[in-house]
Specification:
Number of strands of chain A: 0
Strand order of the largest sheet of chain B: 1-2
Shape of chain A: elongated
Helix content of chain B: over 70%
Largest sheet of chain A: none
Strand content of chain A: under 5%
Radius of gyration of chain B: 41 Å
CATH class of chain A: Mainly Alpha
Distance between the termini of chain B: 81 Å
Oligomer: heterodimer
Largest sheet of chain B: 2 strands, antiparallel
Number of strands of chain B: 4
Order of helices and strands of chain A: HHHH
Structural class of chain B: mainly alpha
Largest interface: A-B, 93 and 119 residues
CATH topology of chain A: Helix Hairpins
Number of helices of chain A: 4
Radius of gyration of chain A: 21 Å
Structural class of chain A: mainly alpha
Number of helices of chain B: 40
Shape of chain B: elongated
CATH architecture of chain A: Orthogonal Bundle
Distance between the termini of chain A: 57 Å
Number of domains of chain B: 6
Number of domains of chain A: 1
């Protein structure tokens, strides 16, 4: 089970990181959302994976760790607030620059090698 | 009270002085003299105390926790310096009155001069080393401003920058040294530090502390190899050169060495560092001075040389040498300040300072010439003048220095050589300027005597030179004794202030120096030719080159790292996180812990597989934004299921409702955005990103695996045990949120509120026109609010509200609570907006969501603060049971009020964010108005 869980977190992280590195705002927002899923699951799992041990007194023989759950609960809500903020930032960017590139300008051209030479040679 | 007043007055004067600038130069000069006159009067009553060997202390607490106090201390040494600063300061004020032209910014000049005076007095009177440090830096700053007083001159600006960089850099070293000393002693108060000399010298960090302190002193006092800033500081107006760069500020480093003499001196390290630095500076300065054609340049290098002499005397470490050093401080200040002023007069009256052009001035200004010649003779060490006395003492001490073997010859030879150079450059100052033929091509011709009172300060100082030279014991004896006693901690050796001590070796050295110097001057052309063979190093060019190189490097580095591309920043961030995390993980070496794996069941495995596939598919298909969003929602839902599967019902409910809100939010945003992402990056770039992403994913997998297979202990037993008896609820997660860790939650809902308000502010005056159709070119449906959706949505609202009330109320004992209830209510309200449009909904639910947020935070804070009324700390919770009709026995906790605050904040924040986005399009508002009408 642990291996499956770890792979899930790995897949979320990898997809999230890849999307965060994209050039347009929307994929970046989606990537951040995926990353926050991964992070939330990771934090949650620091209380270990338990089956049928919900931390409600009187409902089970053993209880899973409530502390990471409490932390993750607020993390989910704050993560939402952050996503909303970034989404709105990208909308504002779109409104102001008429473009949804992350750099807030026309697509960033990666400097060709010789251009880079020129910069360092100065 | 009088000591802080002495320091403070010049600063007050600096504020007041510019007001008198309107009244002309005389008015402002008189006004600027007032602080110094009051200060002299305030110091006078302490004379007797100090003569009896006492110390005056005035101390006020400032930041005791840092060891910083507003404390001032007057003893013989600080009195000597304070008198030099105040009296020469007064003469400078008078001199500047004539030196500055009427159209110049005299207000600024006098204000800066007074600021400098206050800072300098602060250095010498501070009893707290940290306080002294503050004044120390202030002198660097005011010196910078004064050197660059003529801001239109590039040389002045450069010289100022160089002075600031060198002395400021030294200041940093000094601060570090002082902090170390303070750490060793446990106090920054001077009395404690001076008393703890043995403790400091025995400490392991003594060499470091001494080196740092000396760095500060050497840079300030222009010691080799930091001497180069001083000649370039001569771009300052001459009164500034006379005051700061010969008489006072450059003596601050000397003062520091004298001040900390009992605490730091007397070790081998002190001896070698200080005496050899002094020797090198003495010789180098004297040598270069001879070859300077600029009048002020000659004086500047001579100043460097004399500062080296004083440093060397302190370095020798004997008590008599320290007395000689203090004595030479006085003498140098008098003759050098007067020489600078004379040079300023010559510059003023001829329009140049080039000694190749200024010749034969004796015929034009005999009065000034006489004064300058006396002062220059004192500089050369001619008998019956004060420079001779301290130089004799210096020669005597140089002979006393017991260096092993042949080294013993070094100090006397260096001293005599420097003496020869000093006589030579003094002779040049006298002969080249006042005799030696006729003036060559002067800008102002014919030169004549300056205004009467411009010479007055020079006269006073020259008079002092003669008085001290002839009647040393009467004129300067008591002050010197006090200062020496304070420097040496009371152990003043027997010394005699007499004009001649009989025919001895030092006198012979003086003779050698005198006639050697004259001979050297007469043969000067040979030396000039010899010197001309070496390429002169322009320190300013070197310095500027180094600085611009550093700036270049920094700019290049910045341009490389910070090129304005968010993509690159994100990449660098991720890569550095991976790099930073990788090393410790590899060193840790554990990937599978001891507790091993638990079995996998099929449903979980299938769902996990679906999640992984959907996550990867989201990334792969991200160009088709709508599909990516659908896939994302699948991922979110499975995450919610995962929480449910692994015993976290609260999390599952939260995740589910947040998921709904998030997807609605993203759909809404997507409405305005292009619905597909263009291909912009190269294959290589994508490959790079895939590698980074895989590295990050692998890393997280390994970390998770390592963590999950480790046995662990938790602090949560406390919460489990006390949840019911202490918090009155059985749902431990909720009790943690609203009770145990309530303060955290309060912070978190505040963040939520701020984010929502930020969103509102960001979009307030923004309008966005959505594209006319979706990415495939289909137009949007004309039926914006479908009938079926409307009809179903409306009865959903009361039902949803009831569910959320239920979830809220049971939250303390069963899964639920304010967060989840708030999200459910939000979802229900959002549904109304989606189904029926902005206007329709806003008309029927006239809620201002700002107010809801505010109310929520208010409830939460009141619930917390309420416990103050009962004498408990913030957010202490209490609970009881009441019996409600129908429901039966029901538990009520004060934490519920808090949870209500959470509930309201979540609703307010969520809806404010979504409604702000929904309102963006001017289109939709008009359309919805039509529909609803």
């Amino acid at each position: 089970m642990e291996l499956v869980f770890a792979l899930v977190i790995g897949a979320l992280t990898a997809s999230g990181v890849y999307l965060v590195l994209r050039a347009r705002t929307f994929p970046v927002v989606v990537g951040l959302t995926l990353l926050s899923y991964g992070v939330n699951l990771f934090l949650f799992s620091s209380g270990r994976l338990a089956t049928g041990q919900q931390p409600v007194i009187g409902t089970a023989a053993n209880y899973s760790d409530p502390l990471p759950q409490a932390l993750v609960l607020t993390a989910i809500v704050i993560g939402f607030a952050m996503t909303a903020f970034v989404v709105v930032l990208s909308l504002r960017n779109l409104a102001d620059n008429e473009d949804d590139h992350v750099d807030g300008q026309k697509p960033y051209k990666s400097p060709a090698p010789e251009e880079e030479e020129e910069v360092t040679g100065k | 009270m009088s000591l802080p007043l002495v320091v403070l007055l010049p600063f007050l004067g600096a504020l007041a002085a510019p007001l008198f600038a309107q009244g002309g130069r005389t008015a402002i000069a008189i006004a600027s003299s007032v602080p110094a006159l009051i200060a002299l009067a305030a110091l006078y009553p302490h004379w007797q105390t100090l003569a009896d060997g006492g110390v005056v202390l005035h101390s006020y607490e400032w930041l005791p926790a840092l060891g910083l106090s507003f404390s001032f201390r007057l003893d013989g040494l600080s009195l000597l310096f304070a008198l030099l600063i105040l009296i020469i300061g007064l003469l400078i004020i008078l001199y500047s009155r004539y030196y500055l032209k009427a159209h110049e910014n005299v207000g600024k000049f006098y204000a800066l001069l007074l600021c400098f005076k206050g800072s300098m007095l602060g250095i010498v009177l501070s009893s707290n080393l940290l306080l002294m440090m503050i004044f120390w830096e202030l002198t660097s700053l005011t010196s910078f401003l004064l050197i660059s007083f003529w801001t239109h001159k590039q040389d002045a600006r450069r010289g100022a920058r160089m002075a600031l960089a060198v002395t400021g850099g030294g200041g940093l070293a000094l601060l570090a040294g002082i902090l170390i000393i303070g750490n060793i002693v446990g106090s920054f108060e001077l009395d404690d530090v001076l008393a703890a000399g043995d403790q400091i010298k025995a400490h392991a960090l003594y060499p470091v502390a001494l080196t740092l302190v000396l760095l500060g002193a050497f840079t300030k006092s222009a010691q080799f190899p930091f001497h180069f800033w001083l000649p370039h500081a001569m771009q300052a107006p001459t009164p500034v050169s006379a005051y700061l760069h010969s008489a006072t500020m450059v003596k601050a480093g000397i003062f520091l060495m004298a001040r900390l003499y009992p605490a730091l001196a007397g070790t081998e390290q002190w001896f070698y560092m200080v005496s050899f630095t002094g020797m090198a500076t003495l010789l180098l300065g004297a040598y270069i001075a001879m070859f300077k054609h600029d009048l002020k340049g000659l004086l500047a290098y001579s100043t460097v040389s004399h500062l080296g002499l004083i440093t060397l005397l302190f370095g020798m470490g004997t008590e008599l040498a320290a007395v000689a050093a203090v004595f030479h401080v006085i003498n140098h200040a008098t003759f050098k300040a007067s020489l600078f002023m004379a040079a300023g007069i010559i510059d003023h009256e001829t329009g140049t300072r080039d000694m190749r052009r200024i010749n034969g001035l004796w015929r034009y200004m005999p009065h000034t010439a006489t004064l300058a010649m006396v002062a220059a003779s004192s500089m050369a060490g001619v008998p019956l003048l004060n420079g001779f006395l301290s130089k004799e003492m210096f020669f005597a001490e140089a002979l006393q220095l017991n260096l092993p073997g042949l080294w013993a010859w070094l100090p006397p030879i260096v001293a005599t050589l420097a003496g020869i150079f000093a006589v030579a450059y003094s002779a040049r100052f006298i002969h080249d300027v006042f005799f030696n033929g006729k003036p060559v091509d002067l800008p102002i011709y014919p030169p004549h005597e300056p205004p009467r009172y411009m010479k007055f300060p020079v006269e006073i100082l020259v008079f002092a030179c003669i008085m001290v030279g002839i009647f040393p014991a009467v004129s300067v004896g008591p002050l010197l004794y006090m200062a020496a006693s304070a420097t040496l901690g009371g152990n003043v050796p027997d010394y005699q202030l007499a004009i001649v001590h009989g025919f001895n070796l030092p006198l012979l050295m003086s003779f050698v120096a005198f006639f050697g110097g004259l001979l050297m001057y007469s043969q000067r052309q040979r030396f000039f030719n010899f010197h001309a063979r070496f390429r002169e190093i322009d320190e300013k060019a070197v310095f500027e080159a180094i600085i611009s190189r550093i700036v270049d490097l920094a700019n290049r580095f910045t341009a490389r790292v910070e090129n304005g591309s968010l993509q690159r920043y994100a990449m660098l961030l991720v890569v550095s996180v991976i790099a930073v995390a990788a090393l410790p993980l590899i060193n840790l070496g554990i990937f599978i812990g001891e507790s091993g794996f638990s079995p996998v069941d099929w449903p979980t495995a299938i769902l996990a597989g679906t999640l992984i596939l959907c996550a990867i598919a989201t990334a792969v298909m991200h160009r088709e934004r709508f599909y990516a969003l659908v896939l994302l929602s699948v991922v979110g839902l499975i995450v919610a299921l995962a929480f449910a599967r692994f015993s976290a019902p609260d999390l599952a409910m939260t995740q589910l409702s947040v998921e709904v809100v998030t997807i609605v939010l993203l759909m809404l945003a997507l409405y305005y955005m292009p619905s597909w992402t263009p291909v912009e990056t190269s294959n290589g770039r994508r490959f790079r990103d895939i590698v980074i992403a895989l590295a990050a994913g692998t890393g997280m997998t390994l970390v998770t695996l390592a963590m999950l297979t480790q046995p662990f202990t938790s602090i949560s037993d406390f919460f489990l045990e006390n949840s019911k008896p202490g918090g009155g609820g059985t749902n431990v997660v909720n009790v943690i949120l609203v009770d145990f860790r309530g303060f955290d939650t309060l912070g978190e809902i505040t963040v939520l509120a701020i984010a929502a308000l930020g969103i509102y502010a960001m979009l307030k005056h923004t309008a966005l026109t959505p594209p006319p159709g979706d990415g495939q070119g289909h137009p949007w449906t004309r039926d914006a609010y479908p009938l079926m959706l409307r009809q179903i949505a409306r009865p959903m609202l009361p039902l949803a509200l009831m569910v959320s009330a239920f979830i809220f109320l049971r939250g303390h004992n069963m899964p639920g609570g304010g967060f989840i209830a708030g999200l459910i209510t939000s979802v229900a309200l959002i549904l109304q907006y989606i189904a029926s449009g902005m206007i329709w909904t806003q008309d029927r639910i006239p809620l201002r969501y700002h107010n809801v947020i505010g109310l929520g935070l208010l409830f939460a804070t009141i619930a917390g603060a309420g416990s103050f009324a009962f004498g408990y700390p913030f957010l202490t919770s209490t609970f009881g049971y009441i019996t409600w009709p129908v429901v039966g026995k029901f538990e009520v906790a004060s934490a519920m009020v808090f949870d209500l605050g959470v509930y309201l904040t979540v609703i307010g924040a969520t809806l404010l964010a979504l409604v702000s986005i929904g309102r963006l399009s001017p289109h939709s508002a008009i359309k919805s108005k039509k529909e609803s009408a």
